[in-house]
Write a structure and sequence with these properties.
about 0% strand, about 70 residues, single chain, 434 Repressor (Amino-terminal Domain), globular, 5 helices
């Protein structure tokens, strides 16, 4: 069984909260384009953004990146 990647987890978390990409971006101080790139797997966030995302969703980074 393949683990879910960051991009799928981010999108699932965002949708569970009923947020658009733009709304999530505004809440964490990113841009909609960054969220789009992260969710499509075109780029991966650096540790600064991983921390911001994990803090916003109140989850561990390990969960966010598919380690647990």
């Amino acid at each position: 069984m393949e683990r879910e990647g960051f991009n799928k987890r981010l999108k699932d978390l965002r949708l569970e909260m009923g947020l658009t990409q733009s709304a999530l971006a505004q809440k964490i101080g990113a841009t909609q384009r960054q969220i789009s790139f992260w969710e499509s797997g075109q780029i991966e966030p650096n540790i600064f953004w991983l921390i911001k995302i994990a803090d916003f969703f109140d989850i561990q980074i390990d969960y966010l990146v598919g380690r647990i």
